[in-house]
């Protein structure tokens, strides 16, 4: 079973959210551990955000950049962050991933690039 230490040490995290009909949708994301939580950043208008609004229960697992699982999935709860928390998460991710993290956020802010971000706090259950 993946522990918080294992999950937080990975480069990528698979976050599986659920559609209204229960269909799972997995997405690989960058992450940063903060205390007993994992923080991720995503586009505010993404399907992942819509699904979390409808159902905060998620499954998480370490994965590679293509989303191939590298460990067992564990149950967690996801909570969308407010704008201040989102800025903190963005700064932490930029610090962890360096130039690539900065560029990913910058490109998404360009016209047609995906729009604003929202942070997600993930807590194991």
Short précis:
This protein is of the alpha+beta class and 125 residues long. It is built from 3 helices and 7 strands, in the order H-E-E-E-E-H-E-E-H-E. It has a single domain, classed as Roll (Pnp Oxidase, Chain A), CATH 2.30.110.10.
List the topology elements.
Layout: H1 4-9, E1 12-18, E2 24-30, E3 32-34, E4 37-43, H2 47-54, E5 57-63, E6 74-80, H3 83-108, E7 117-124
Antiparallel strand pairs: 1-2, 1-5, 3-4, 4-7, 5-6, 6-7
Could you walk me through the main structural features you see in this protein, from its secondary elements to its overall organization?
32% of the residues lie in helices and 37% in strands. It is of the alpha+beta class and 125 residues long. It has one domain: Roll (Pnp Oxidase, Chain A), CATH 2.30.110. Strands 2-1-5-6-7-4-3 form a 7-stranded antiparallel β-sheet. It is globular, with a radius of gyration of 14 Å. About 7% of the residues have low confidence.
């Amino acid at each position: 079973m993946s522990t918080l230490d294992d999950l937080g040490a990975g480069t990528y995290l698979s976050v599986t959210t659920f559609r209204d009909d229960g269909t799972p949708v997995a997405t690989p994301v960058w992450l940063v551990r903060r205390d007993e939580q994992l923080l991720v950043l995503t586009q505010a208008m993404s399907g992942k955000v819509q699904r979390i609004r409808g159902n905060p229960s998620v499954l998480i697992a370490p994965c590679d950049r293509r989303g191939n699982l590298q460990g067992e999935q564990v149950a967690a709860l996801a909570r969308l962050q407010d704008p201040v928390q989102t800025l903190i998460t963005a700064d932490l991710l930029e610090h962890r991933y360096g130039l690539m993290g900065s560029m990913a956020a910058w490109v998404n802010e360009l016209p047609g690039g995906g729009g604003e971000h929202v942070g997600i706090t993930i807590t194991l259950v």
